[in-house]
Amino acid sequence: MSFEKEFLDCFPQSVVVNTFSSIDGYGKASFSTAGTTYSALIQAEQKLVRALDGTEQVAETTVHINSTSAISPDSKITLSNGDTRPILAVETLSDDEGVHHAVIHLGSRLG
């Protein structure tokens, strides 16, 4: 499904998503070097979400992205200002034609 032009105008920012690759011998995660850039609407808002581990956590940022494909929760997301945040929860929003866009809830800024 493609976005309507008017809706895409609501996504003035961008984010880069790098998929998870592996964990090294020291327990550090590595990610693909080729990230995918998505049009996005980044909202700084505190919201209580059910995190991937089943606990309730406070998301600091909500990102709506122009994607109908699933974003893996173990991916790395970099905001347009260069901040990298942990992904707490991922949702896909649908309309009468199917999946419309993805919503990613992010935790506090990493290191």
In the predicted model, the low-confidence regions spanning at least 5 consecutive residues are none
Q: CATH topology, which one?
A: Thrombin, subunit H
Please tell me what the overall shape is. Answer: globular
Mean pLDDT: 85
Using only CA atoms, what is the Rg? 14 Å
* Terminal CA distance: 37 Å
Instruction: Kindly state the number of beta strands.
Output: 9
Q: What are the secondary-structure elements, in order, as H or E?
A: HEEEEEEEEE
Briefly note the structural class of the backbone: mainly beta
- What is the count of DSSP helices, taking H or I runs of 4+ residues? 1
By CATH reckoning, the class would read Mainly Beta
What composes the largest sheet?
7 strands, antiparallel
* Count of distinct structural domains: 1
| Share of β-strand residues | over 45%
Side by side, the strands of the main sheet go 7-6-1-4-5-9-8
CATH architecture: Beta Barrel
